[in-house]
Amino acid sequence: MSNEKNLENMADLVSLCKRRGFIFQSSEIYGGLGSCWDYGPLGIELKNNVKNTWWKAMTFRSDVEGLDASILMSPLVWKASGHIDNFTDPLVDCKECKARFRADKIELDAPCPNCKAEDSFTEPREFNLMFETHMGPVKGSGAEVYLRPETAQGIFVNFLNVQSTMRKKLPFGIAQIGKAFRNEITPGNFIFRTREFEQMEMQYFVKPGEQKKFMDEGKEIRYQWHLDNGIRKENLRFHPHGPDELAHYADAAEDIEYKFPIGWDEMEGIHSRTDFDLKQHAELSGKNLNYVDQADGNKKYLPYVIETSVGCDRHLLALLCDAYRLENEGTKEERTVLKFKPHIAPVKIAVMPLMKKPQLEECATNILNELQKNYKCEYDVSGSIGKRYRRQDEIGTPLCITVDFDSLEDNAVTIRDRDSMKQERIEISKIGQYVREQLGF
User: Fold this and answer.
1) Where in the sequence of the chain do the CATH 3.40.50.800 domains occur?
2) E strands within 261-356?
3) Could you tell me which residues are beta bridge partners of residue 379?
4) Could you tell me the CA-to-CA distances from 123 to 85, 104, 119, 173, 394 in Å, in that order?
5) DSSP codes, 63-79
């Protein structure tokens, strides 16, 4: 058994992500843009795997439909939802160094955390977190629009469109993956809190009075999804919202929290939103959004809503943190490895000719071309075979296939498992079957 350590410092993960092409600082050549990040070649593969896994879990069922609503919406949407009037954080400035802080996150009677000046804070003032822009060629009253701060409202304003066109009966859900934008005062901790992020949300519409049952069912399903993606159980927990924590629209809420290197924090929220959103949009728009319940004597009412909202970037960060291992530190056998579940790993298979020899490369390329029909693969021919194994370990590749000179004689290759580092000799004609069995798909 190797001497194995988990991730202890977020800086180690940030370094790996930059070095191996997962995540880069946005606009880095110009000095970067605060709390904005670019997903590199491996990062976008990992992110797509997360989104595809969530989308399949949400919509490959008869009671949930998908949606992709516009980022730009009528400002009245945000008036109805309360974001224009209430989506604020208390902001204070340091009079000395001009740094800005959320007033609810610092001690106002303590020295400035940045410059240590005493009694230097301004009076708190409310700061709206929505990004404002303008539609059309002329700025002015009536031209203001907002970058959406959440994806949920696009679902609520399309409730009847989806229900009627897809002929859905309660209970049913609408799922969406999309970008959201918040002008956070104090973002940070890598991709944990950013100003541009991606949400994966599903609103499940239920008959009033049945919300607790679906809330209880939904939170267990969502908890299991994180486990299925490889998050270790000891790093997950539920955090129920107390009366002082509940959003104004909710009658119950629980967070799924992950134990990041920075401490326990929210990764997903499951909320019982009552009928607040549909009621607000019905009142402000003047449109009848009632559901006609044919199973209950054509009774008309606004459904209640159970929401699941998971930050794609936060779940991805949790996967990176949870998969990270440092083995045999300080020895010749030291290696950093990302122990992703195969369906999450950005690269499934690396194909490696033992040396840069035409006959080996031809055989390896033929194998690569066949495997790439079904799997994301890498072709790696640079450096010693040991260094190549370590590179693939560090990006989480489950299987490495090595073509050597014996392969030209016995039509077999060596396949190495990432976690156990066990090697097996497999006939080339049986690689496809072997890979399916090892990866599980």
Assistant:
1) 347-439
2) 263-274, 291-293, 299-301, 304-311, 324-327, 335-338, 349-353
3) 351
4) 20, 12, 11, 44, 48
5) TEEEE---SB--HHHHH
State the pTM of this model: 0.91
Q: Are 63 and 83 in contact (CB under 8 A)?
A: no
Model pLDDT for residues 126-155, shown as the tens digit of each residue? 877 889 999 887 776 668 899 999 999 999
CATH 3.30.930.10: which residues of the chain? 4-74+147-320
The two tokens of residue 38 are: 């670019």
Contacts 24+ apart (CB under 8 A), 357-363: 359/408, 360/403, 360/404, 360/405, 360/407, 360/408, 363/403, 363/407, 363/408, 363/428
Q: What confidence tens digit (pLDDT) does each residue in 234-245 have?
A: 999 999 999 888
How confident is the model at residue 203, as a pLDDT? 98
Percent of the chain with pLDDT over 90: 82
Q: What's residue 124's pLDDT?
A: 87
Q: Does domain 4-74+147-320 have CATH number 3.30.110.40?
A: no
* CATH top class, domain 347-439: alpha beta
Q: Which helix (H) or strand (E) holds 416?
A: strand 412-417
111-126: average pLDDT: 88
